[in-house]
Each structure stands twice: as structure tokens, then as C-alpha cells.
Specification:
13 strands; 4-stranded antiparallel sheet; 7-stranded mixed sheet
Length: 354
């Protein structure tokens, strides 16, 4: 059969999302969703949205949403960029800040697996920096690359390890390259680098409404940086889609980010359950990396990562297993509600009896 695909479409290796099986009801702890519902203010905004308004295009500049984000983050609206999820914004970063014939992008060997996919898609050279034996990132190694810029997930995924803000600032202050900070899991760490965007013009912070705001299903993310960086993203956006954030999304997310107290309370529950889950896993013979996110990364002394993953799935619990060197003995487990975590622990107890 004749193929009509381009060489790129035929050869590229796309990102693999966490599985979403529908064969039965699962305790779903594999895609790092928040176990708690969105803010009541967000729901009220959703319920009151005028359906007839959908005949109109959304505001391409997302003015009200950017203003709401700016108010919550303590920056000016002109320093905020909104997109269809943080993944879209990260994708736009590659053509905006890296040249196909340049020195490339630097990032860790074990980090968010979309980064190498974006490099391949946009033809950007990859500068891979191995994590240390304890899965921490060496800034000295990162400095040693000749890359045009760097990407750092903080907290990192899938390890969950967070980098303290002072350490991050020391690296940024000494760098003359763009530093893109992927803060998808920052609501569970609390050491955002947004204030650094006022001090350094080489810092771009990318965030999402998916994790800390319980809005993974609505697809919205944002970036904060100096005006020149934001303009770069805007130029790339308008080469793809001038209306990436729909009207309903803009209204709901603006309401959500204003409900500070609600999310402070719910995310504190996640952090508390994270601590309990880590302790219980360690009691069961797991090595658990120190997590600053809404998931834990754990390996068992007697069972392989694949055995744990498959055993849990058989018992109706989904976790994420990466069949990759250095981390194939680990499983990544989303921190669920107390009831979900108890279900996980019970299933593990059954697996570990054999």
C-alpha cells in the first residue's frame, strides 16, 4: 500500500501517555491526577457559562485569565503566556528558543520524556546529562554542556525529587543561557522560581492547571518570564493556532486560580498522604525516593518493577512502569485519596505474600 506520510511522520517516536484502560474499574494511580475535585468557584463558573457564547471565538490573548494568573503569581499580565496545557507551551519553547543548526537543548537523562520527543520533532540537538546515583541533578554537569539552553523539571518526573530554590538561583545567576523550568508539580513543593523571572531575563517558568488545580481534563497551562521570552512564545503560537485556550477553559481556570485557600487545603492533603504512603511502602520493603511531587517513585528489594506493575494491574490498581535503563526496577505511584492509597497498599500486601 502506498504511504502518504512524510519521512518525519513515518520515523518519529512520539510520547507515550499513561494507559487509560476501560475494561474494568481501576484505582487509577498512573497519570498523576489530583484525587480531589476542582474548586467550587471553578465549578460555579463552568455551570454559569453561557452556551450561546460558544458561537464566538475565544479571546486570543486570554486577557482575563492572564490577569488572574498575574494576580496569583505576583507578576504583570504582559509576563504571562497561556496555552493548551503546559505540554503545548513546552513544545513551542523548542522553535522559540533553540535553533535547528545550534548547540541544542540540555536536560537530564531521566526526566519528563516529552523533552527528547520535542527535540526530535523540531530537529534540535539533544545534550543529555546523566543524573547522579541518587537521582539528583548535577549543576556542574549541566554547566559543562555547550547547549543553547536547558530544561529542568522541578520537581523532576518521574523521580519526584525537588531542587531547593537557592540552588536553582545560583545556577541561573551564573548562566548566560535560557533556563526553562517545568514546574508542573510545584503545588506540592512550594518553592516556585516565578520570583526569579523578575531578576533574570533568561528564566522561563512553565506551569499547568492539570495537577495542583485538579483540571487535567480542561487542558490549560501558562508560562511566566520577561516580555521578550513571552513574545517569542506568542510568535510561535500564532504560527500554529491563535486560539489555543477556549472560552470555557479561560473562565474556569481564572476562577480556579483565585481560590487559593481551597487548593492550599486540598494539596496539603496530598502532601500528607504522600508522607503516609512513603512510610507504608518502606515498611513493605520498598526503597522510596524523597518526593516533592504528587507521586512517589519506588522500587522493591525482592520484586521487579514489572512484577509490581503487572501484579497491581491484575488487582485493579494502575501505576506507571518505565521499561528503561536505570529505572526499570521502579514504579511511579500517584498519591491518591486515603481510600485509594489504602486500596493500593492492600493490593501490594497481597502481591508481596508470594
Amino acid at each position: 500500500m502506498k504511504t502518504y506520510l512524510s519521512k518525519k511522520a513515518s520515523s518519529v517516536s512520539p510520547y507515550t501517555a499513561g494507559e487509560q484502560p476501560k475494561d474494568k474499574k481501576y484505582i487509577k494511580l498512573n497519570t498523576n491526577e489530583n484525587p480531589y475535585p476542582p474548586s467550587p468557584k471553578a465549578k460555579a463558573e463552568y455551570d454559569s457559562f453561557a452556551f450561546s457564547d460558544l458561537k464566538l471565538y475565544p479571546d486570543p490573548f486570554a486577557k482575563k485569565l492572564r490577569e488572574a494568573i498575574a494576580g496569583a503569581e505576583g507578576v504583570d499580565a504582559e509576563n504571562v503566556f497561556c496555552g493548551n496545557g503546559s505540554d503545548e507551551i513546552l513544545a513551542l519553547c523548542f522553535p522559540a528558543f533553540f535553533d535547528a543548526d545550534g548547540k541544542g537543548a540540555a536536560f537530564a537523562d531521566i526526566t519528563y520524556s516529552f523533552y527528547p520527543v520535542f527535540c526530535d520533532f523540531f530537529g534540535i540537538k539533544k545534550n543529555i546529562v546523566p543524573l547522579e546515583d541518587d537521582f539528583t541533578l548535577s549543576f556542574e554537569k549541566l554547566k559543562g554542556t555547550a547547549a543553547q539552553g536547558v530544561l529542568i523539571a522541578n520537581p523532576n518526573a518521574p523521580t519526584g525529587i525537588g531542587i531547593p530554590l537557592p540552588e536553582l538561583e545560583a545556577f541561573i545567576a551564573a548562566s548566560d543561557r535560557i533556563v526553562i523550568l517545568d514546574e508542573a508539580y510545584m503545588p506540592f513543593f512550594g518553592q516556585t522560581a516565578v520570583p526569579l523571572t523578575k531578576k533574570y531575563d533568561n528564566v522561563l517558568v512553565v506551569k499547568t492547571f492539570s495537577k495542583g488545580y485538579s483540571l487535567a481534563g480542561i487542558r490549560c497551562g501558562y508560562a511566566i518570564g520577561c516580555r521578550a521570552l513571552i513574545e517569542g512564545l506568542e510568535r510561535m503560537r500564532d504560527c500554529f493556532n491563535s486560539y489555543p485556550v477556549d472560552s470555557v477553559c479561560q473562565a474556569v481556570c481564572a476562577a480556579a486560580i483565585s481560590d487559593t485557600e481551597y487548593y492550599r487545603e486540598k494539596n496539603a492533603l496530598v502532601v500528607s498522604e504522600r508522607a503516609r504512603l512513603s512510610i507504608e511502602l518502606e515498611k513493605s520493603g520498598f526503597k522510596v525516593l524523597p518526593s516533592s511531587s504528587n507521586f512517589v517513585f519506588a522500587s522493591h528489594q525482592k520484586k521487579s518493577g514489572k512484577e509490581i506493575y503487572e501484579g497491581l494491574k491484575e488487582r485493579g490498581v494502575l501505576v506507571r512502569w518505565f521499561n528503561k535503563p536505570k529505572i526499570d526496577s521502579f514504579v511511579r505511584i500517584t498519591v491518591g485519596s486515603k481510600e485509594e492509597n489504602d486500596g493500593l497498599l492492600n493490593a501490594l500486601s497481597d502481591i508481596l505474600r508470594f
